[in-house]
Amino acid sequence: MDSLKDLKSFLQALPKLNDKDRESRVKRAKQDFYSFITTYLGHHIGLEYGMTKKESSKFRAWVYTELPKIIANKVTPTNKMVVKAYRGAAKTTLISRLFCLWQILRGDKRYAIIISSTLDLAKEGIDLLKIELEDNINLVQDFMIKKGSLWNNEELVFSVEQERESQVNTHESDNTEVLQDKSKSALKIATGKVSQLCKIKSFGAGKKIRGTNFLSMRPDLIICDDIENDENIESKSQRDKLYKWFNKAILKLPSRLNPYYHIMLVGTTLHYDSLLQRIALRKDFKTFSFPLLPQMPSNLDLLTKESLATFKPRGYILDDTSLHIKEILSDYLEDKASFYSEFQNEPLDKDNAPLSNYTTYTNLPPHIDSCFIGIDPSLGKKRGDYFALSTLFYNKKESKIYASSKGYKIAPDKMIDKILTLFTKTRKLTEHITIACEEVAFQEFFKNELKKKFLTHGIYTPIIGIKSNTNKEIRLDSLAPLLSDGDLLIYENDNLLKEELDTYPKGAHDDLIDSIDIARRAMIASSCINYKEALKATRDYKDKFNSLKEL
Questions:
Q1: pLDDT grade, residue 165 (50/70/90)?
Q2: 3-state class of 296 per DSSP?
Q3: Is residue 451 within 8 Å of 463, Cβ to Cβ?
Q4: In percent, how much of the chain has pLDDT > 90?
Q5: Which InterPro entries match (predicted)?
Q6: Which long-range contacts does 278-285 make (Cβ < 8 Å, 24+ apart)?
Q7: Among 152, 275, 418, 437, which is least packed by CB within 10 angstroms?
Q8: What backbone torsions phi and psi does residue 166 show, to the nearest 5 degrees?
Q9: CATH number, domain with residue 378
Q10: Quick one: DSSP state of residue 14?
Q11: Do 206 and 102 have their domain in common?
């Protein structure tokens, strides 16, 4: 609906459902969240009454099926949770509004609070629910909803018909199933209808909220919906202030006597030090994260603004298959920092990303003195890792290293062909080529197979093994000064590599960076070192260099 006025008109024109089916309809709606939506509120997800569709989004499917199970679990309850989802996933509509209402109408919750970044935004949700509870005749009559003493765009008090079971004494002669005792009297379960008062109230983030209660009840459902915005995450002092308020105010809201309360922090990750990120790291919260692209295209390096129209993405996974991948990739090309923050739940942390300060190049210099190819096979590593190939082009006159790196997700038998192709292209630039592969387990086997394949093609070039005697993190961190000083340049169109550099060490992958380090260590071990200058450095910095031979 375009406006609340349109929603009101739509609801007033709804046909009334058959009263004969009311009992089964309500029972089904209370048992299944998706049935509740399609029966009474389908217009909020683009459906007419009674219509269903196969859900195209993994996130929304999780909300319909898994979230109700998590909330209903009283054996191992998850009282506090973080739900991170990409912008446009419909998290506000589904969780903060419809799921909140469903919990109230089921009778599971009595006092729900919805908190947004501002009170005005929170009021929008209350306004929408208010119209539904006024004009959705099928919802109102099926659940016997009646207005209470407070009815405005900040808080709604209303009653809902609920079934209540009670034990009553009966006699053996009663025409019911009973549990008999020695006195020939028994107990039976009697089911009756009761009207249960409940409340939904809105608040703005950072506002006074401590001690709020309804009929002496503390809130049992607290939904913090995108309580951060571009303003209140801008400075560390503002982020600290919001975090302090969340700890002192929000976490103290539920009653200690109620073990089944729920606090839900729902939002989009706007900053690497945001409240959402801080809380997600806590052990007392369970985190559920839904990026728009759980798996980026494996051929991302071929993507540029110029090639977007003809680009054919491969190997990607999209949360919502109804969306257009080209439009999403256009957003990626336009502003990568915003893309990772708003759509991937991975805000870039330049302050704590030691390899993110790099310079790019678009063209190689006219003369290349030597090349070093580093191989990081995905053999024996975790599923999803890249087979990485990096080439370091060395220009002696400039004392610059030009890096180009590609990542592939292909079968092992295809890897050697990729290396052969790369070698052939590189040979046009220089005859001084060294290929390096790390000497561990499967990689050692791969190196030997590569040598055999090269020999069968009549190619005689050094293929060496590189031993790792240093912690991987220390090795990769050592690339930082080369990058920041501009001695190691990165090819502008190597998108996968740039992604790894921007997100290291917290990123999902570092395979391409690792292959660069392998090539760099091959370069150090080669004769391209200027020994005259190195010996001079040894004399000048005796405390830093024990021996040149250690290199």
A1: low
A2: coil
A3: yes
A4: 67
A5: P-loop_NTPase, Phage_terminase_lsu-like_C
A6: 278/243, 279/82, 279/246, 280/82, 280/84, 284/80, 285/80, 285/81, 285/82
A7: 152
A8: -145, 155
A9: 3.30.420.240
A10: P
A11: yes
Output the pLDDT for position 527: 59
- Asked, for residue 314, whether it belongs to a domain, the answer is yes
Residues 315 and 392 in one domain: no
Residues 422, 542: one domain? yes
**What's the CA gap between 139 and 147, in Å, rounded?**
13
Cis peptide before 259 (omega within 30 of 0): no
Q: What is the mean pLDDT of the chain?
A: 87
Please tell me the distance from the alpha carbon of residue 87 to that of residue 331, in angstroms, as a whole number: 12
**Of 351, 343, 299, residue with least CA distance to 494:** 299
The answer to whether 394 and 372 have CB atoms below 8 angstroms apart is: yes
Residues 6+ apart with CB under 8 A from 422: 373, 389, 391
In this structure, the answer to whether residues 262 and 332 fall within a common structural domain is no
- Residues contacting 20, CB < 8 A, separation 6+: none
pLDDT at residue 156 tops 80 = yes
The token duo for 482 is: 């080369």
Structure tokens at 338: 């915003």
Token digits of residue 127: 């306004």
Place of tokens 């790792």: 468
Q: How many whole angstroms separate alpha carbon 279 and alpha carbon 157? A: 31
Judge contact between 188 and 174, C-beta under 8 A.
yes
Domain limits for position 24: 4-169+186-289
